[in-house]
């Protein structure tokens, strides 16, 4: 299974900001670009109505999920696809292992898929001596660097052009001032050989339509089309929440996901895959396997509040607009899904204790909810998980004591006034460093400058 | 119990007390400014905006002439072209043939196109690799096959689905290297929609 480490968030985020200003610069620039493209793309549509419609379709699917899964399974089987079910990551990679063993697979090409990251597919293949190559340009770059993706849509947005130049110089001997075009051409050549030599292609699935058993995949480079067309076997990992009732429902979802993710009217390439190669078709895989994956999703579905997160279409727009994600990028979150959506998916999929402190890695500004294409109430869900964390005693004792003290002060006006006034006379620099919690806080920040007269004093006198 | 049965049982249990909500019905594609009335106009605008090229030709002769001119240019003349299996003989330019892996040009017949998104709809029966491997891709598309909206196109395609449909809406591109746009990453860097107006 993939190694999740949300527990290291605070330290990793601090280190990212202190030691890697270049990551912050790259991520901030990339997310601003993504978001400005979304704003432009939204100006051509009526985003409120599109989002209402998309939310309602997803809500409908989730409240009829058993029925649609069975319908999709029937359609897939009728078109000659093999359908498998995996309760967790271990089962999912085991199903893949059986397919690779049966066919003697040695070389695999992979289309970008967050679910396969969640399941740890690459590590499982490599452990069995199978060569696996990521083919999305960004995924390829981070695979060469041995890093996980830092963003749902742009896995390598934490890297600068110079980072890529250095990497390609080391690996392929391209000059250190090579243009991005030249670097991409180098990658194209290397990967073209991989596509043509691979026995098996792996993809995820953006959507799976129940009425036709069609798998829909969105991309820009053509690597997904190639990974699902050139090798003789195609294995698709699909989360059980990815169902849509009808092929025609894709009309909104393909466009809205694209507009939200990159600002395009639609991704450059959309694959609509219905079964393996048919008689009379010149090429395409002889076998198609669809692995339907639970891995915690039914547990989320059972939660009357948290289940709304299952509507997510993985567009990444909540990451792009998040003032917290923008400072650090995705790596410090220590989980496949980072940013606001990661902070509400992790407690459901991993379990709350393992996901701590991600529900707290947010300022609750609410921007994520304003852009979500399926209107997931992300700030409400962050608060929900925070409440659950406090109930479960997962919040540090010092913080609980602090909140309790604040609650007492806030409900006793005289005490509140006295406590407020006393803050003006605290030896901030010294005292801050001496206190266990404040020490960490004040070490990063300058002490506040107080005005001559407090707000409360001004209020008593009457503000003009 | 199998994994399938356990997953379905957990879903049923999770949904036991959950109010079921209805499907919202047909997608309206709501916009502040309506799409062009003419589907072809919409297609030309959107496909061009995404970096694709459009050549409007009046008939099959003109289409063949365009392809033959392209075929006389050095790379195609030297290496050859891959032509899709469903390109009708009347449109086949008769260029020297090459497999998609090595061809300098791919020629495909579009099953349909979509104005709303500027997409060419490519059918697996035409050959997938011809649509993807050559660096230049010319796609023949009949003006009469262009749908105004994606929902109309999908409703029409649904009756006859091949193993794969590819919606191609411009040249292959990526911004994964430092957010700088590059073309022709895996698929063709140049895509021409050859629009037959007859």
Topology:
The complex is a heterodimer of chains A (464) and B (198).
Chain A: H1 9-19, H2 21-42, H3 47-63, H4 65-78, E1 82-86, H5 89-103, E2 107-110, H6 114-119, H7 121-127, E3 131-134, H8 137-145, H9 161-172, H10 180-197, E4 200-203, E5 207-209, E6 214-219, H11 223-227, E7 233-239, E8 243-244, H12 250-261, E9 269-273, E10 287-293, H13 297-301, H14 317-321, H15 325-328, H16 339-350, H17 352-355, H18 367-371, H19 378-391, H20 397-410, H21 413-423, H22 428-434, H23 436-443, H24 455-461
Parallel strand pairs in A: 1-10, 2-3, 2-4, 4-7, 5-8, 7-10
Antiparallel strand pairs in A: 5-6, 6-9
Helix pairs in contact in A: 16-19, 22-23
Chain B: H1 3-15, H2 39-49, E1 53-57, H3 60-71, H4 74-79, E2 81-83, E3 105-109, E4 112-114, E5 119-123, H5 128-132, E6 136-142, E7 146-147, H6 150-157, E8 164-168, E9 173-174, E10 182-183, E11 190-196
Parallel strand pairs in B: 1-11, 2-3, 3-6, 4-7, 6-11
Antiparallel strand pairs in B: 4-5, 5-8, 9-10
